[in-house]
Design goal:
Blueprint lengths: L5 H13 L12 E4 L2 E4 L6 H9 L18 E14 L3 E3 L2 E3 L3 E4 L6 H13 L5 H4 L12 H14 L2 E11 L9 H12 L6 E6 L5 H4 L3 E12 L4 E3 L11 E5 L2 E5 L5 E2 L2 E3 L1 E2 L8
Parallel strand pairs: 7-8
Antiparallel strand pairs: 1-2, 3-6, 3-9, 4-5, 7-9, 10-14, 11-12, 12-15, 13-14
Length: about 280
């Protein structure tokens, strides 16, 4: 008996598969398990919904989707900036004038550290970058101190109800060595941000003589910032929360708050503090 060739086996297998019952999609409400995860097909993909859609009017009137703004307990932002180093310009880092034979060529004072800190704050708040809010095409920002940009970013952060949890910044430059200036820069940055110095960290790296950074032709900075929802907000909750005879928790606007009888009160207003927990109100 002659052995079947691989082509004959493949053909036989193919014909045996197509003679089986056709694969049917499960109904819209049926769960579909993929690698242990259970999901459900949206109703918009079911055959019944497609038929109903075809039978409906050709004019499709859809209400605009309303984008809800979520108040998150934490927000993270990243900032980056780079400037060329040229002779004849001052080198300002973190609002401090650093002695060097070159400085940053920029529309403002070229403070690479403050610029990336501003971008980190704006990014955490979901706002446009520094170039859009303070465009270099606007002559009023020509030579402006970057502390102005920091103050505006802090104002926006404060209005949004956030404060700095911690900030970590990294300077990248080949020269000058700034180890003797780091504490002064960090202290001034903390003051500009209105933050405790313990939550502001500053590091400095060389670029091992690689590319423009390593050849002392540019300077760069990275910043990562954590913003936290402010605590101790005064909320006029009225009758939404029962009288507190002991420490209790409740949810308001998807945020969990905790308070007790020791909290100051005035009428229906009581000071509640945000509590980062997932325990429901009890």
């Amino acid at each position: 008996m002659a052995m079947a060739t691989s082509t004959q086996l493949s053909s036989s297998l193919f014909h045996s598969q197509i003679t089986k019952k056709p694969f049917l999609l499960p109904p819209a409400a049926a769960p579909i398990s993929v690698h242990g995860f259970s999901t459900r097909r949206p109703k918009s993909l079911s055959f019944s919904s497609v038929s109903a859609s075809a039978a409906s009017s050709a004019v499709d009137v859809t209400e605009p989707v309303k984008k809800s703004v979520r108040t998150l307990p934490f927000r993270v932002g990243h900032g980056f900036d780079l400037h060329r180093l040229e002779r004849g310009y001052p080198l300002i880092i973190g609002g401090i004038d650093i002695p060097h034979d070159r400085g940053c060529e920029a529309h403002s004072d070229g403070d690479v550290l403050l610029h990336c800190v501003v971008d980190a704050i704006l990014g955490a708040l979901g706002l446009p970058d520094i170039g859009q809010i303070f465009p270099d095409s606007d002559p009023k920002w020509k030579g402006a101190a970057s502390s102005v940009f920091i103050k505006e970013a802090v104002r926006l952060m404060d209005e949004a109800g956030y404060e700095i949890g911690n900030l970590d910044a990294t300077l990248i430059l080949q020269r000058p060595k700034i180890s003797s200036h780091k504490e002064t820069i960090r202290s001034n940055l903390s003051k500009l941000l209105g933050a405790d110095p313990s939550v502001v960290n500053l590091k400095a790296k060389t670029h091992e003589k690689v590319d423009s950074l390593g050849e002392n032709r540019s300077i760069a900075a990275h910043t990562v910032i954590l913003l936290m929802k402010k605590t101790g907000h005064i909320l006029d909750v009225g009758n939404m929360v029962p009288k507190l005879t002991s420490v209790r928790q409740f949810r308001l606007n998807s945020m969990l708050y905790v308070s007790g009888p020791m909290g100051p009160t005035k009428g229906n207003t009581r000071i509640f503090t945000y509590c980062p927990s997932t325990t429901p109100y009890a």
